[in-house]
Amino acid sequence: MHLIMLGLQQDxxxxxxxxxxxxxxxxxxxxxxxxxxxxxxxxxxxxxxxRFELYGVVEELExxxxxxxxxxxxxxxxxxxxxDAVRHLFRVTxxxxxxxxxxxxxxxxVRRAYLIAQDQRAVGKVLHALxxxxxxxxxxxxxxxxxxxxTWSWGSLAAEELERAxxxxxGKTIAIWGSGQLxxxxxxxxxxxxxxxxxxxxxxxxxxxxxxxxxxxxxPWEERVxxxxxxxxxxxATSAPGPIxxxxxxxxxxxxxxxxxxxxxxxxxxxxxxLKHIQLRRTTHLEPILRERRRQREEGARAADVLxxxxxxxxxxxxxxxxxxxxxxxxxxxxxxxxxxEVAWALGKLGNLSPREVAIxxxxxxxxxxxxxxxxxxxxxEMAGDGHEERYLKMLESLFDLPAEEEAR
Length: 409
Prior knowledge:
By secondary structure, the chain is α/β, with parallel strands linked by helices. The chain has 3 domains: 2-144, Glutamyl-tRNA reductase, N-terminal domain (Beta Polymerase, domain 2), CATH 3.30.460; 154-276, Rossmann fold; 324-408. Helices cover 53% and strands 13% of the residues. Helix 8 links the parallel strand 5 (173-177) and strand 6 (196-200).
């Protein structure tokens, strides 16, 4: 058994990430298509604006390498395996791998990715335990260190950037395209600043619900461009596969208009960047702020790293102990066969016994087997977690003449 992560990140392969990123509603279908991948036993797919990662359990490492072909031929996939894959997930979930160091949106995204995989029956014992441990460890890192000091997020950064561009937002009209987590957070922060919001989303029900939550106005998707005539600014953060606002669209808007495009891939066509009446900002324009916020949280991040490493080792010891379980089962099955034979022999020698006396003999034999095997079982699980499991398991096979169970290992 091998635990792996195959992934792409925005800072390492932005073009490839744009090509493979999936909106949340398409993740279930992607998981269903992966179910017949040879050697893939469990899978969770994490697809966000900034990363695309498949966490999986495979029988052989070669099966993990073959998954690259399914996910996208020719892309620069990064493969992590074993403890390295676990460490990466823990750091991602805690926000240590985010541009916004310590941000908490990713924790919710990881939780939803796990729940979607669970709904698709793509999660087994290993990934179930891994994602529960990652989520617990991330929450602990935020509560016990300064990693979460000074609550902020992409949504709050968006509101700050709009305020820098427009001045006080009280009474300003802001159009928001998108109804996902980032757009939702931005909407709530803008509501707090007194802005009037026009919200358009590709799914009308989601956009209408978000508009109701923030006291804004829902705009039908087909009317989104024309509604910009009423707006002072646009915050766009959809999961569309390509640009949804063209140069021609913007030429028809009298302006001036400030646009903050936080979508990945971008919602605003690159050809529109030189229009005089448009002031366009993308995620790259927020990098100076990100660097300063990162500096403020670095000390908390170091403390969080230590805590996460402790939780990682606890999880990895459990993973290693799994190698001993099939052999322990074989040992107990063999002991049970011997017990049944010896009880039958004893009952035959003792003659006519009452049902109560037969039950006592049966109970005594079971208690004897359980007590004899308890300490070896506990010790074997402990030893299987110290990195030398192969040697111990082979020794147990030889000592008790047990069948090797290669599949379980």
